[in-house]
Structure prediction request, 202 residues.
Amino acid sequence: MSLYSEDRDVLAESIRHFYLRRVIAPMLRALGPARSERIARRLAAGIADLQTPSRAVAEARIREALGRAADPAEVRRICRGMYDNIARFWAEALFVPRRLGEAGWRRYVNVNGEDRLETVARSGRGCLLATAYFGNPAAAAVALGQIFRPVHVVADFLAQPQLRAWQRELYAMPTIRVIERRAAGVLIPTILASQGPVYLIR
Prediction:
């Protein structure tokens, strides 16, 4: 691939992200969370039905995970569910900074064992917080950031420039410090030694 075509691809992704951020995202925010989620899920279903190369790759990986006896209908169901979950995540992500701000974040997030976390936060000790991948990890990170002020989040930034830009924007909260996964082995011991909290999603 020539340098010119690489520059053109980067420019195209930048324009798409600008359009999504400045035109589409404000429109969806104005519609509210429920309507935005419905629109996003309908779009995701339409994209899934286009039988794109990305869907073919996803289905191949699902078949590999399920084994040779995988039911084709089950593979399709899981794949469509994946598209639906991604759509719900990004629709919800539009409202995370506004809903989980300083004053009212507890109205939208229920943190089990919050008293214990508050105690750990006040203790001045370093701690490692780990969870399975349930719900919206960005919302969990923002809520933990409100408690620990700040929390260090280990994140694997997406390779696709458009989505990576959204991801960086989502984590650009004053109570969150992002650690890229490739640097985690070096940075985590230092953060823990300096009494900082680290949030891992496993």
